[in-house]
Amino acid sequence: MKAIIFDMDGLMVDTEGLYFDTERIIAKKFSKEVKDETLWKMMGRKPVEAIEIFAKDLEINISVEELLKMRDDLFVEKLKKELVPMPGLFDILDEFKDKIKLAIATGSPDKFLQIVLDKLNLKSYFEVLQTSDEIINGKPNPEIYLRTMDKLQVLPSETVVLEDSSNGALAGVKAGCYTIAIPNEYTYKQDFSFVNYVAKNLFDGKEHIKKLTDLK
Residue 215 pLDDT > 70, yes or no? Predict the structure, then answer.
């Protein structure tokens, strides 16, 4: 294995709860209630695709652009105040830094990624940072992983993908990568039957990757 590609939301940082809180607040503004099933469908997707699902399921009749701005403004405030790393993040990054190429492939826009990188001082760990801004087809389409591997100059057979959602994990599998799911409290009920390994957490994921490589 020559590369590890990390999803960001819910995998590196505990943002799924922030997204869920934000979307529930917005639903209430329209006197609606958003079901968990809708929130699950939105996970891992490009922002526009996620908001389209939200608007359709809740039958909210305003433009996607307006709804997305409303969500983004609220989410940025939460991100700046409440962002925390997932347990084991720095452990796995320190283990593989300078030994294997590391990258991020996130369905979030660059403006969210930069807040996370700056707040947690993560930039030095990664060779490639791939956001949804230049991606046409969001997860579960494999485009984002294919593009990230192209930038890393590695093959799918040399690449490990770490994902917390079924949509994201499916993108990793479709890209031909060795895909490890690390479900969190928001995603553990999703289908991960198709992945190569389901890890308990990032610590477990780290140990499993070490077994796939010659690293001791």
Answer: no
CB 112 within 8 A of CB 50: no
Q: How far apart are the C-alpha atoms of 157 and 43, rounded to whole Å?
A: 26
187 within 8 A of 16, measured Cβ to Cβ: yes
Q: How far apart are CA 111 and CA 53, in angstroms?
A: 22
d(CA 104, CA 126): 7
| Of 7, 9, 14, 164, catalytic | 7
- Give the pLDDT confidence score for residue 213 in this predicted structure: 86
Average the pLDDT over 67-93 and give the result: 95
Catalytic residue list contains 14: no
Domains of the chain and CATH, by start? 3-14+84-212 (3.40.50.1000), 16-82 (1.10.150)
Q: Is the pLDDT of residue 216 over 60?
A: no
Instruction: Tell me the mean pLDDT in the region 31-35.
Output: 95
Largest CA distance in the chain: 55
Measured CA to CA, the distance from residue 169 to residue 196 in angstroms comes to: 10
Residue 214 pLDDT > 60: yes
